[in-house]
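Journal club side-thread
Mid-discussion, someone asked how the predicted structure for our own chain would compare to the paper's figures. Pasting it here so we can look after the session.
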Amino acid sequence: MTWLVSDPSYAMFLLIDFIAIFTLVAAMRWISRFIVKPVDQHSEASNIETACAVIALMLALTGVTSGAFSLTLFDEWLLVSVYGVLAIGLLRLGALIQDKLILPTLNLSSATQHGNITAAYITGAHLIGTAIVIRATMEWSSQDENLGINELLLGFVLSQLLLAIETRLRLIWTSGGLLKSIKDSNRASIIKAAMQHIGAALAISSSAYFATDLDTQWQLAVVAWFVSSIVFLLAYLALAELCVRIILPKDEAYEGGRAVLEGAIYLGWGFILPALAS
């Protein structure tokens, strides 16, 4: 914060950022609430998904609000607002892709509206996972708006592809158990799946360290980003599963809280891999 002491005018840039962020968060809240508006008075599921959407947006915005300010107040407001609006659209689009393409046999939005909390957890995890990758993408963006938008869109496409792979692998390993858990509202199993999904996004974000020169070597950086993302995703799944098998006894498969403990291990590896890659 030494820059604030040396040049108090920067306080105006902070004020502009706060105004833009407040406006964007309010917009995300109302949009998400409209999409999963509950059909009755039981709105816990709707509130959970809306809360995850707000967290996801604010997480994504940390990628564009960090670093140096723009040259003028208007440029700063425009930069944060444009990226914020794009982030809202991409986050909600990601949730729609998960609902209609990745898990087509379920209507997650409708289930959430009817009070299915497990459906809200799954959608919320995907929103946060998408935001994690978007945040990593935004951190690469320069003041060149065209370049930044290209990076943002590319990051979104890769995030949906890789998170879809993670979900499909989980469906294969559980023989469709994920779908049954959502239908049966098995909270413990779904919380584990949600934590694993967020952990996978964190692991994927590790690839940011291998693709930092998009402006000068675009094609090479895209290849490096995609390949390293696949490697980190597979390493994450293998290491986390190995850790679960070694630490947790097999004869306690039905121990209360085991699913949450497994999810915590997956989430923990999601934090460790980016640290190891940095």
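Post-session note: Residues 142-147 have pLDDT under 50 and may be disordered.
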